[in-house]
Design a protein that fits this description.
The protein is an alpha/beta fold. It is built from eleven helices and 13 strands.
């Protein structure tokens, strides 16, 4: 029997959708999640219930920072590929709780790297973030640009993950692909993100906080397009870049290690106001806007340059926001029984 794929954060938003897609194509999937209470655990439990109903899914309730537990998991299940999507998410939360991010995103990632090394994993695909670009003001964001100026601890931990992965790729020959996700949305999304919060507030006729004085723009990327990219990356292990030049090093590839960084986004940015207008149309309700300055650690604009991702993975995001937001509203109405 073929070895399974390990998906960390499998009860989370992107991890859940990724695990479902892998199961649908006949893979055996081992999932891991600590089910923490950063947001509504019942939503995580509902996602997990769909996974555990599948005969090819096996779940571990485990914290990434539990080194002994992670060692046991890798030794027992011996995955041949790993999709590492488990992490402490959220930019604003990281401003007040940096220790949580170090424990989950750095100590936890080290546990994943060690496990991959121990059992000879063929490819590690891991989640990075568009917020790694930080103070960089050049749009669209290209993986060819540097990421030396993060604006929050969450972003800093993800940049650290990229560097740690390169070290393991170099020393141990572990193929690693880091994916910088741009604002992901869709059914089964996270309640701490804008679309989820806006929907609940609008339906209750409560005001929504719009940060950035109404100037915020985001590369909103639908979950199915993101999962397309994750699966395509998993199926194409990173290799050393034969064109890499040590005298003028490309920060997204490596000539000394099987390692790369790719953007996963829609490749276009939309005004937050436009996002809200689409949501109002789908809900049939007007939003009450409370326009506020940008919060600490927030980026005002994001947009992905997906040139390298298209070339490497034939990546082609196709979902416009009116379609994606509509699908989210349909799911939200069904899940929460909203008429």
């Amino acid at each position: 029997m073929t070895r399974p794929v390990l998906v960390t954060g499998s009860a989370g938003f992107i991890g859940f959708h990724t695990a479902l897609r892998l199961l649908a194509r006949g893979e055996r999937v081992v999932g891991l999640d600590n089910m923490n209470d950063y947001y509504d655990v019942s939503l995580k439990e509902a996602r997990l219930a769909q996974l555990t109903a599948h005969p090819n899914y096996r779940h571990h309730h485990l914290d990434l920072a539990d080194r002994e537990g992670m060692t046991t998991l890798f030794a027992g299940d011996r995955p041949d590929r790993v999709v590492h999507l488990g992490a402490q998410a959220g930019i604003r939360y990281s401003v007040e709780n940096p220790e949580t991010y170090v424990d989950s995103n750095i100590v936890g990632f080290l546990s994943v790297l060690q496990g991959c090394r121990d059992v000879g994993v063929g490819h590690l695909v891991f989640a990075s973030t568009s917020s790694a670009f930080g103070a960089n003001g050049t749009l669209p964001y290209s993986v060819k640009q540097g990421v030396a100026h993060p604006l929050n601890v969450y972003s800093a931990t993800k940049i650290a993950n990229e560097a740690m992965a390169h070290a393991y790729a170099y020393v141990f020959g572990l193929p690693c692909t880091g994916l910088r996700f741009f604002t992901v949305y869709g059914p089964w999304g996270r309640p701490d993100m804008a679309l989820f919060k806006f929907t609940g507030a609008i339906l209750k006729d409560e005001p929504i906080n719009v940060y950035g004085d109404g100037q915020m723009e985001r590369d909103f990327t639908y979950i199915d397009d993101i999962v397309d990219g994750v699966i395509a990356a998993l199926d194409a292990p990173a290799v050393r870049d034969p064109a890499w030049n040590a005298a003028a090093p490309d920060p997204s590839t490596s000539g000394v290690a099987p390692w790369r960084i790719l953007n996963l986004g829609a490749g276009r940015r939309e005004r937050l106001q436009r996002y809200i207008e689409v949501l109002e149309d789908k809900l049939g309700h007007k939003a009450l806007l409370n326009v506020m300055p940008a919060q600490d650690g927030e980026m005002i604009r994001t947009e992905a340059d997906i040139t390298e991702t298209r070339a490497a993975l034939a990546y082609a995001p196709v979902t416009p926001i009116d379609v994606g937001v509509g699908r989210f509203v349909d799911w939200y109405s069904d899940f929460y029984g909203v008429p």
